[in-house]
Specification:
Elements lengths: L4 E4 L14 H12 L5 E3 L4 E8 L2 E8 L6 H11 L7 E7 L7 E4 L8 H10 L4 E6 L10 H5 L5 H24 L1 H8 L6 H6 L2
Parallel strand pairs: 1-4, 1-5, 5-7
Antiparallel strand pairs: 2-3, 3-4, 6-7
């Protein structure tokens, strides 16, 4: 398995900038900047894309512009056009079952309540690689899930994520360079916290 496409999930437009649900966009934006890629709109994919080079390999970065719940429509079109299988796709997105800032790598499992991943599973099937970044649990249990994931990060939370951004970019480079198995062992080595164990039962 070789990663050819790296997608960050999020919602388009200034209204959703810096929201919890858009952390995938934030990370691929930083990756594009680091690898000197420039974004362009591609109507056929309903996405913004950037072609970059890493270790003499070309990678396609993608930000679906379909809104989160239809992410699979955009990424399915990308894979079909380039004649790629699902396991060539790395998807970066938010996870509220992980503590703020904590990353986790996986290559299987359910959508876990994430509508963007649910749409991907419906449209392209399992097999794509998942890099999740924790946004923390809802502060109030009764809070509407959509209200929470579409809320802005607090300044202190934004600072934590900014501090961790170099780690996320290093992890993505590790996945591309060394492969999934090696990356699993490094990225996922930390013991689960009490909060995370309670959400994964």
């Amino acid at each position: 398995m070789s990663i050819a496409v790296i997608a960050g999930l999020g919602n388009p437009g200034p209204k959703y900038r810096n929201t919890r649900h858009n952390i995938g966009f934030d990370i691929v934006d930083r990756l594009a900047a680091q690898l000197k890629g420039s974004w362009r709109a591609e109507a056929r994919f309903e996405a913004e894309t950037a072609t970059v080079e890493f270790e003499e390999r070309k990678l396609l970065l993608v930000k679906p512009q379909t809104y989160m719940n239809d992410s699979g429509r955009s990424l399915g079109a990308v894979l079909r056009y380039h004649k790629l299988e699902a396991d060539s796709l790395l998807v970066i997105y938010d996870d509220l079952t992980l503590d703020l800032g904590r990353p986790k790598l996986s290559a299987s499992g359910s959508a876990g309540g994430h509508n963007g991943i649910a749409d991907l599973l419906d449209r392209i099937g399992p097999g794509f690689v998942r890099y999740r970044v924790g946004i923390g649990a809802k502060p109030i249990k009764e809070m509407d899930l959509a209200d929470y994931v579409l809320s802005q990060f607090k300044p202190a939370e934004r600072e934590i994520l900014s501090d961790r951004m170099p780690d996320y970019l290093d992890h993505i480079r590790l996945i591309i360079d060394k492969g999934i198995e090696t990356a699993f062992n490094i990225i996922n080595q930390r013991t689960s916290t009490t909060h995370e164990r309670s959400h994964n039962k």
